[in-house]
Structure formats: C-alpha cells, structure tokens
Amino acid sequence: MVLVVTLILVVILSLVGTFAIRNATQSERSINGIRSAEVAREAAETALRFCEQVAMFDGDGKDYTEYGTTGMRARIIATTIGSEFDVGAAWRDSSSWVGNSAILVPKDYINKKPNGTQVDAVQLEIQPRCLVQKIATTSTPQLTGYLITARGFANNASFDGTTGKATQGAEAWLQSVLTRDK
C-alpha cells in the first residue's frame, strides 16, 4: 500500500514539476519578447534623434558632418509630400529603405557615452536607419518642414538589404514632423 501511494505521489510531483518548468519557460519567452521590442524602440529613437539633427542642419543650409558623416544633406528626399499620411510618402515604399535614400546611423553615434569610456552593452547587429522627406502642408498658413521616419531593430531581427523589409524579429518604427517658423 505504501508503495502505491509513493508511486502516485511521484507521478503527481513529476506533473507539478513539468508544469512549473513549462510556465517558467513561457515567462522567459514573454520577457525576451518585451526586451527585444524595447531594444528595437530605443534603436529607432536613436535614429530619429540623429535624423532630426540632419534635418535641422539642412534647414540652416548646412550638411551634418559630426561622427564622420558626409553627404547627409544629399540623402534628404526632395519630393515634397503633404503629410505623413500621403500615399506617395517614401517611408511607405520598402525600396526606399535600401540604397542612398536611407540614412544609416553611424556606429560612433549609437555607441556614444557622455564620459567617453568604452561601451559595455551588446552592440546592435543591424544599424538603425531613417528617411528624411520634405513636407509642405496645403493649409493656411502653409507649414514646411521634414517628415522623419526611423526604424530600429533588435538583435533577433533580420533585415533584407535588397528589399528593405524586415523578415523576422523585433522592429520599431517612429515618426516625427519638424516644421519651421518663417
């Protein structure tokens, strides 16, 4: 009788252990998904901040040359759109994200630290990127400026450099509109 009770308890404890391991694994997957999404969002924020600098310098008639960058002004898409909802906006076309239109954020900008010490965080495998396109509203008064669209990727993402599409993993998109008073 004791043997039967012991065997039943062993089976019950095994099932409880199996469920506990399964739940822990599911929790770990959820946490990794949240972490990956956050890394992608932070990468997109970095790209957005960088490209806002490019747009502000262009508005002043200058090229943004910090962090070893050159020719950033030439990458601004001159085709003017009416708003971020415009069907002709370059950010909607995946081919705009490859080639000379997309601005890749320099690694020195991504890895910068205020005190100049070595970066100890895991480095991004896919550089964040952004598009800057000129925008002019049809409203009165007319506002002119830039639509900036940024994309960031976590290290679990895959980006196809020929099509401009992410094929898997965490990816974040952010947009801002910069306008100028005249």
From TrEMBL:
A Pfam family this chain is assigned to: PilX_N
InterPro entries referenced in this protein's UniProt entry, alphabetically: PilX_N_dom
Residue stretches making up the Type 4 fimbrial biogenesis protein PilX N-terminal domain: 2-49
Protein name: Type 4 fimbrial biogenesis protein PilX N-terminal domain-containing protein
Organism whose genome encodes this protein: Variovorax paradoxus
